[in-house]
Amino acid sequence: MERTVLVIDDDSKLRALLREYLEGFGMTVAQAPDGNNACEVVRSVAPDIVILDVMMPGKDGIEVLRDIRSESRVPVIMLTARCEDSDRIVGLELGADDYLPKPFNPRELLARMKAVLRRVEEAPEQTEICIGAIEVGGLKLDLSRSVLLVGDCEVTLASTECRLLEVFMRHPDQPLSRDQLMDKVWGKAFEAYDRSIDVHVSKLRAELKPYAEHADRIMTVWGTGYRFRSDG
């Protein structure tokens, strides 16, 4: 697998270990000791995938991910010593592609990298997520700006809510399980984050609640998951 990997981590020993290990599989490994100027580094290196530590001095990984996602859809796997679901959910909301807790086996990291890269290649629609618009049932989702248009009103959505609503609107009136939604939004089934789908659905419902005709647009399908109602 001939790829360029950017490792952003303040642990020099870990960076050296990953460089030696990944280069053994024919990869080019670039390194950064912190998240300062992350976007400039990404532009300069043009990596196929980024390995990003959460716990770093100065800018932490969440801030760095936010910076990267402001201008790039490069796949990102986050490394974290934190075990709280809230930290992982925030990363996923901002567009992380996977999470791996420390300490970890480099072999597992490599397997996850291959899986993420494979999903990107096999799902070209993921690379087009920021292009165009979808309109269903009087709602228009502007993918280029992550904005939902409700009549004359504009509702700015977080990246994950935008992707989730895109999935709903591309599958109107179709019951979708939580596993299906996680697979379509994040590219794989994150079993550990099953409840996070409920969190994101609640956020979408809160955004729609002020608009009476759309307040019940996302319906719960008991025992299955959710359904996006296309009729008014």
Descriptive account of the structure:
- The protein is elongated.
- The chain has helices spanning 12-23, 38-45, 61-69, 85-93, 106-122, 159-170, 178-186, 194-208; strands spanning 4-8, 28-32, 49-53, 76-80, 98-101, 133-136, 139-142, 147-150, 153-156, 176-177, 218-221, 225-228.
- 39% of the residues lie in helices and 22% in strands.
- The strands form 3 sheets. A 5-stranded parallel beta sheet has the order 2-1-3-4-5, sandwiched between helices. The protein has a 4-stranded antiparallel beta sheet with strand order 6-7-8-9, covered by helices on one side.
- The model is unreliable at 124-130 and 189-193 (pLDDT under 50).
- The protein has 2 domains: 4-122, Rossmann fold (3-Layer(aba) Sandwich), CATH 3.40.50; 129-228, Arc Repressor Mutant, subunit A (Orthogonal Bundle).
- Strand 1, helix 1 and strand 2 form a beta-alpha-beta unit.
- Helix 6 crosses helix 8 (194-208).
- By secondary structure, the protein is an alpha/beta fold.
